[in-house]
Amino acid sequence: MLEQPVHVKMLIGEKWTGGPNIIEVRNPAHPDEVVGTAIRGTESDVEHAIAAATAAQPGWARKTFTERAKILSAALDRFAEGTESRARLYARENGRVLAEAVGELRGVPMAQRLTLELAPELDAGKQLRAPSGRTFVNYMPYGVVVSIVPWNAPVTLCFLHAIPALLAGE
Fold first, then answer.
1. pTM, 2 dp
2. Residue 29: CA atoms inside 13 Å, Cβ hemisphere, count?
3. Domains in the chain, ordered, with CATH?
């Protein structure tokens, strides 16, 4: 069955944006197959994305770890929907075997839920014994971070970076 090409835009500041620079995406396992197109971001797009993330981050950081974990858990639930159809696209886009793509897409939410289980402990902080008085460790968000994800397992590696950073309030 011949799959229709997909056309992907960039999400910057809650808006899907296009642009004149289009990349044609081909299946590495079948180079004659065009999987679709994607927008090639510019330096200006990066600046806009950083500005949007910087504007949104303080509101996200004000949430507790538990509140952020609940939102991220709901996002993982949504991600788990439609795994088979998404895996077919992922296999074509990345040149993966379909069974491997399905396994990766099913495994990501399960693995990342382990990270989210840390939320109550992070909210509680930690009190340390001290020679005089008390010392309390409290976890504070650092700010906006950037993650560069390699090509060989982009879904797993993206979530491996993004979920802990988002849970931390970044």
1. 0.87
2. 10
3. 6-167 (3.40.605.10)
